[in-house]
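Internal QA ticket QA-208
Title: Verify multi-chain structure generation after dependency bump
Assignee: T.L.

Test input:
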Amino acid sequence: MKQEKDKITAMTAYDYPFAGIVDSSGMDMILVGDSLGMVIQGRENTLPVTMDEMIYHTAMVVRGTSRAMVVGDMPFMSYQVSREKALENAGRFIKEAGASAVKLEGGADVCELIHGISSAGIPVQAHIGLTPQSVHQMGGFKVQRDEDRLMADALKVQDAGAFSVVLEGIPSPIAAKITDTLTIPTIGIGAGSHCDGQILVLHDMLGINSRPLPKFVKKYADLNAAALLGLKQYIEDVKRGGFPSSDYEYK
Ligand code: KIV
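Actual output:
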């Protein structure tokens, strides 16, 4: 798709019904992101998410997907401890959950792991720039602007065997240079329009949560408002005895 300049569309999903909706929209790739810690579990960041939780959600997404590529996101401390642990956990996404690939955060520091996992036959998507699992080291969720480091990280993860790289929170001109330099596709989130593909967090773009959104998120729907409207109508109907009407009763 990169060679044909056909933009890659990617979206997160975390459960069976939404995976079905995303898949039937024609999306190319579904990421079961550890962002579920924030948008599903209501946590402040992604750090507490566990491997077992990721396997649970990834299996649901795989069951709801028939055509898109499903990528499982390796959570904090599931790959940093040792090469063996990283390989074992990457394998769980494939064997137990049925994912087709895994994603992990980091650049030069995780190249050995990328090489080990991809050598075992598991496609690895890298993730550089604003890497949420390093939120404390970065001093918050901040745009990353060190062009030399970002370019070096991108080239290193490609050389290590990554099939694709997520560029998050990077100024557009830097992301464009990286995209033009690499042979593997870049998937941008807060990295401008020149990337080979784009990804967003589903609950942000569909307006499911009311948390403040980063600048790069475009809200394509307001499901929060639609759901509230339906729920309020139900309450009103029940209170006035309008539901269930005879149409919804067994005779
Ligand atoms: O966890 C996630 O959803 C991600 C995407 C935002 C790329 O890593």
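Spot checks passed. The CA atoms of residues 127 and 166 lie 4 Å apart.
Status: verified.
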